[in-house]
Amino acid sequence: MRTALRVPVVLMAVAIGAAGAVSCSQSTPEKTAASERSTAAAPKAAATPSGTPAETPILTPATDLPKHAVAGKDRPSIGAGVTMAAGYTGKDFLSRLAKNWKLNLEEPVKQEMPNGKMRTYIHGRGGTGSDNGTTVSAGFADHTNLSSLLCGTGTDKSGALDFLAACTELDVAGIDHAKASSWLKQAKRETDSLYKERAAETKNKKEYVVSGVLTSGPVVMVLHRTYATYSLRILGHAAA
User: Bigger pLDDT: 40 or 153?
Assistant: First the structure.
């Protein structure tokens, strides 16, 4: 196991996400497998060991999660993912995903969350050629059982939807894979449409939009889109 990494608060927060844990800054949703910070004001938690105050997000109730795409500023806050299922490590799934999509999985690393707790991650990245730029990050809240999954790929990459669809095929009991497949197609279509609409209105190519949320069995899923990147977050029991 590598030496523990200290992750800045600004990078932490899966929407929903997901990945991989967590809290993600509005301007850089693709950088971490973390859940979104609330758009509403959040009370401050006690300082972390580093002395940096950590924010406690105000979670969006499951009944209020959006069903359709929204602008990034209106994204819901779902919280950090927790264990998807007792005993489910996701290691076999990750191995298959890596093999099928030519991803190079790194050794597990520990990262510090804003609340000072440690979480284990396994990161992977595509190699050369058409797989370059494809990423995956799996988070383990208890260092053993899978709690979050973040899959990223370029918006202009051929096979982008197929790769994201493969990520929704987690083999944890309870996920309705047919429903997840249908949801992903709708999520991509709606986020692409809203992104183009927002970019045309603001003349800003760095717009950020978020899909509606799918709750299926032990997980929630949400798709983020920025200028050139899709980030699919899958979190274990993250909805309040």
Answer: 153
